[in-house]
UniProtKB/TrEMBL annotation, chains A, B:
The keyword NADP does not apply. SMART domains: TPK_B1_binding (SM00983). It comes from Candidatus Carbonibacillus altaicus. Its EC number is 2.7.6.2. It is an enzyme of class 2 (transferase). Keywords: ATP-binding, Kinase, Nucleotide-binding, Transferase. GO terms for biological process: thiamine diphosphate biosynthetic process; thiamine metabolic process. This is Thiamine diphosphokinase. Transmembrane segments: none annotated.
Length: 232, 232
């Protein structure tokens, strides 16, 4: 079962529709969990929502009533709980046989939540369940030792060490080559590499490596924010 | 010497002006480095800019000419370099005697850049130079073993393990208490704690812990993004 977890961070209806279609085609129909405001977002954009999870402090009782009126099952938590709402959804997915997880809207303005979601990817990896964390400008994976093949259409692929030292990294199909080299905390050497084709690979000898496909927001004012590039 | 590194990510002129005034008062005048588009942002908002650093691919030759016309010294790099522009500025700061560093606009839409900047904080910590990474909604620090006192006016303080396991964490002055407990990768337990007063402390026995002061963007539509709270 492929599980989409739709959280409260940044997302775009258009790209989510594409993603849903892409995965619905390859696999069976994905199971979609809306997290607090994410559930309302799904309903308002007429996407399926198979389960709504969270303390619902963001959408309040009016939002909860709206979800119930749609017949969406609710998994409701106390506001004062040890885990985040997204983590609750992830727990549910792992306990109910998810074989692959996409956290849509898992990156947003609250950097602590975004970082906590990166940490959740690690839990999935330890459970042997591939997990992708994304928003419209970034798609984050975590890889361990071995060779990982990646199909990508994004202009940048950044490699950031999750472990203190990631050893023996070899890249195939990237503009900036690496051959059995190490990346460590404290240095930005792996940032903004560029895939030369849609099918690339990354081999790691030891350690955990974050692989981030990214693009610059097109509408961003270059004086105010990130550089503006064209997404090839 | 306190060094401000102003990068291309999210920032607000008002809060930067306050920050500059706050630090200029406590210490001597800070040294301000503009990174690529960050330098132009400083000039356009009539802030001081003592040095401009980067490959300047974002602001282009017109932007560079504008900086030169203002008499700002430039440290210019090749576009194809191993380090990021912000890292270049940090290298300069560490080599030139910075005793404290603030990276303003170090968090933005490009999540790979934001994460790479988190990694730079680790380098500063290893050099014994305190470093803060921030944008208008988040302020990120990294702490190691020992007791860290923190003055904060932010509604949330999240604790996220940077090391795989951070052992023996004890909090003083927080709503959700911790007493000689561990936080590990994969779990969100330390997220969205709330300081009970402006003066709190965090004690760590071993490992590195990210401390993130954060607030929700006030103007954010709760259906679209993060929850909306009032900043107390």
């Amino acid at each position: 079962m492929l599980v989409f977890i739709v959280s409260g961070g940044e997302k775009e209806a258009g790209s989510f529709a594409e993603l849903l279609a892409e995965y619905s085609d390859e696999n069976d129909k994905p199971y979609v969990i809306g997290v607090d405001a994410g559930a309302l977002w799904l309903v308002r954009h007429q996407f399926p929502c198979d389960l709504a999870v969270g303390d619902f402090d963001t959408i309040g009782e009016a939002g909860v009533a709206l979800l119930e009126a749609q017949g969406i099952p609710l998994l409701r938590a106390e506001a004062e709980k040890a885990e985040t709402d997204t983590e609750m959804a992830l727990d549910w997915a792992l306990l109910n046989g998810a074989r692959s997880i996409v956290i849509e809207g898992g990156i947003g303005s609250r950097f602590d939540h975004s970082l906590s979601n990166v940490s959740l990817i690690y839990r999935c990896l330890r459970h042997g369940v591939p997990c992708v964390l994304q928003n419209p400008w970034n798609r984050v994976r975590l890889i361990g030792p071995g060779k990982t093949r990646l199909k990508t259409r994004w202009p940048y692929v950044s490699l950031i060490p999750f472990s203190e030292v990631v050893r023996g990294i070899t890249l195939d199909g990237f503009y900036y080559p690496l051959r059995e080299e190490d990346l460590s905390w404290g240095y930005g050497r792996g940032v903004s590499n560029e895939p030369l084709r849609s099918d690339v690979s990354i081999t790691v000898q030891s350690g955990y490596l974050l692989v981030i496909e990214s693009r610059d927001p097109k509408s961003r004012d270059p004086e105010h924010g990130d550089p503006v590039h064209q997404d090839p």
